Predict the 3D structure of the following.
Amino acid sequence: MNEHESHQHPHTLDIISRPRRNRRTDSIRKMVRETILSADDLILPLFVKEGKGKREAVPSMPGIFRNSLKDTVAEAMAAFKLGIPAVALFPALANSKKDQYASESMNPKGLLQETVAAIKTKVPGITVITDVAMDPYSSDGHDGLVENGRIDNDKTVKILGEMALSQARAGADIVAPSDMMDGRVGYIRERLDYEGFTDVGILAYSAKYASAFYGPFRDALQSAPKASKNIPGDKKTYQMDPANVREALKEVYLDVEEGADMIMVKPALPYLDIITTIKSNIELPVAAYNVSGEYAMIKAAAQKGWLDENAAMMESLLSIKRAGADMILTYFAKDAAKLLG
Ligand code: PBG
């Protein structure tokens, strides 16, 4: 028996390390906390609808609305006041505005373009991110051009280049291609630079998976992909297989080479390993999209009284940050920012 043991209380275990000492009080837990979530990390996605009418609830996303342009500007203002640095805009268009070529996406007076311009005028300090993909504008509901029974990659990329340019002209700070076509980041960079928009950034949805968790978003925009001759009613020929991680790295490396400024993983919670892997392999900032289905799950369970909404929300967002995300797109952004104070 050594001296140390001889002083031991009879009921005390003979252990030196007691990790619980660092969890004993709230102030100690604060000091040793490894990950700090802040409103600075959050990006609020917003759905814009045409007309001046009242906001429309998205049934599968409680608390989320399709807003008119004016109300969208107010939402951006409210987010900015809460310390949220950026919004990501998604237009909800009438079916009559949709066509095979997503022509409306290049209309300088289009809903998205006018919304971007209005936000940049009224809330100049906020960063405006626009989505580059055909689906909200496409009568086929796909992110790519459906022609002759296939999704034509290269023709789609040309359309995306013009779409991104139109968004840049409207005042977008960052364009975010979410289409998963090959070669689009490089082409968009080239088009933007050629037209003088060298300051407009590219947030590439590099690792975007063919996920069931986008369901509520497609309700919000009425943009579900349609099946047609030889084309399935899903996005599996361009969005990634949820089984793959090395392929995500391949996509990320290509987008880095093609000039992306930031890259994104989407969805977030079922893909935390992808976020961590990418974060440890590249130097660019990494964003993660806490998508509509992830939001809907927490909301639905909370509405049933099955879990504590705020606690589940904060734990989810913290986990995404801990996995390695520098930025989190989330429909919870305002609620979280309020709690973060
Ligand atoms: C479309 C796009 C989608 C989302 C963002 N951009 C849907 C899709 O790919 O079908 C989903 C976002 C969400 O579910 O919250 N290019």
User: Anything to note?
Assistant: The longest strand covers residues 42-49. Residues 131, 133, 135, 143, 178-179, 214, 217-218, 235, 291-292 surround PBG (CB under 6 Å). The chain has a mean pLDDT of 96. The domain at 36-340 is CATH 3.20.20.70 (TIM Barrel).
